[in-house]
Amino acid sequence: MRADPGEVAASAWIAVLPREASEELLARLGEDLRQRGWAADASRGEEQAILAVEGPRDAAALRAVLPGDLEADVFPLLEAAEYRRLRQRRRFLSALVAGLSLLIAVGLAWPLVGFLEPPPRTILAPDWMHVPAADRLQVGEAVRTQVRGKSIWVVRLAAARWHALSAACTYFDECLLEWDRERREFLCPCHGCAFDAHGNVVHAPASIPLVAREVELREGAVFVRRAL
Amino acid sequence: MSGTTREEGLLRALGRALRAPVPPERKGWFAFGWSCLALLLVLGTTGALLSIYYLPAPGAASESVRFLMREVAWGWLVRGLHRWGSTLLLVFATLQLLRVFLAGRYRGGRAGNWVLGVLLLLLSVGLAFTGELLAWDARSSALAAAALSGTESIPIVGPALAHWMRGGAEIGTATLARAHAAHALILPWLAFLLLALNLWLLARRRARREA
Predict the structure, then answer these.
(1) CB–CB contact B3 A27 (8 Å)
(2) What is the DSSP letter of B184?
(3) Is the CB of B74 inside 8 Å of chain A's CB atoms?
């Protein structure tokens, strides 16, 4: 290639074997070469068999393994410096891929093990709905949410007391009530109805109190019953 | 050497394929197929994990999904990986098949891989569809209604097929149970078999080329 095979300390070599080289011979040679810690790959072309070998310091080292009666031509495939450069690059990239894979595996193992840990709240009652926004309410605050397609207000009346009431005005149910924090009343923007925090009418024209839903506090989470 | 490749197992063949040099001019194209394989692995793992918390019954299904997202540690991550993985899989599988089609690589002994590839894409669509149903929210019921009315409009077999998918006269408990069975058991195993066959064909082809 670039210099006489005998002089270059190449580390990758091509041995061209005559066509007569049998499949068994190639297999045995590959085995011999690998036992010396070299990498070997054989392929068979139309005219000859080719043995690619990585590792020998020089051509003589490779020739010593090949049978003496075999008419083999040995060529350097890569000069030592080039070979080392490519091998280093390959090693670096392999290490990079392995390292990143390991990082991803470790990074995922943590969440996946956590996922298997039974959650503190194991209730999964379909009849009760957790209202996360209600957990965080201050006393006197209210939040509007939906249960089975109906709007409701969840209001925090005391440190450990929540109420859930229908958010539709009982006088005209197209109107959604607003929570007045100062007066602690639900006001209707349509006809001026007002209800107290328990749902009782405090201002006409409405005459029917708001429908209340059961509320349960479980381990700090507010649950509203879906069914009336 | 080539002597041993004929008897090697699927895993060894896979390792060999991973280490095999890629022709430099086609380097980027190989990403699609491998991405599909990696995504299927992700989907299988996260899907198995999701089944721990999912309850396939109307009334409980959407609540169990909400529970998973809010209460279960890393539930959002596992579900997110599963959801986005499935979307990505559809994208990559389509690109992979387009590549094979445009390069004419369905010819010359690759017909088996091509047919399996198309079937796998169809299975992916089926899995994405049934997976979408499992959340059993407003979106799911709209999707189910649309898909079932579409199925119903197929001449001759349509009504029977829709009835069979629905599991009765109306969309309900049976529909969800069927979607769940298809999504969690039937379609994944079918996909796994087709995928194993596909990889086996590829490995055999590679072994023959090297021999």
Answers:
(1) yes
(2) I
(3) yes
Interface test with A, best of B43, B74, B173 (most A CBs within 10 A): B74
Q: In the structure encoding, which two tokens stand for residue B162, read together?
A: 């829709």
DSSP letters for B125-156: HHHHHHHHHHT-SHHHHHHHHHHHHHHHTSTT
Minimal CA–CA distance to B13: which of B209, B200, B177, B190?
B200
Run of H or E including A225: strand A221-225
Check CB contact of A111 with chain B, cutoff 8 Å: yes
**Complex-level ipTM:** 0.73
Tens of each residue's pLDDT in chain A, 228 residues: 344 444 445 578 888 888 777 788 888 888 888 888 888 888 777 777 888 888 887 778 888 888 877 778 888 877 667 767 877 888 899 899 999 999 999 998 888 888 888 877 665 566 778 888 888 888 888 888 888 778 888 988 888 888 888 888 888 878 888 888 888 888 888 888 888 888 888 887 888 888 888 888 877 788 888 876
Q: How many other CB atoms are there within 10 angstroms of residue A130's CB atom? A: 20
Whether the CB-CB separation of A222 and A134 falls below 8 Å is answered with yes
CA-nearest of B77, B82, B73 to B44 is B82
Residue B60 to residue A130, Cβ atoms within 8 A: no
Q: Where are the domains of chain B?
A: 28-210
Residue of chain A minimizing CA distance to B18:
A94
Look up residue A168 and give its DSSP letter. Answer: B
Domain B28-210 has CATH 1.20.810.10: yes
Q: Does A126 touch chain B (CB under 8 A)?
A: yes
CA atoms of A137 and A157, how far apart (whole Å): 10
A144 close to A151: Cβ distance less than 8 angstroms = yes
Q: Are strands A221-225 and A215-218 parallel, antiparallel or unpaired?
A: antiparallel
Q: How far apart are CA A14 and CA A5, in angstroms?
A: 11
CA distance B100 to chain A (A): 27
Q: Rounded distance, CA B117 to CA B93, Å?
A: 8
Taking phi over 0 as left and psi of -120 to 50 as alpha, with beta for the rest, B109 belongs to: left
As a whole number of angstroms, the distance between CA B204 and CA B209 comes to 9
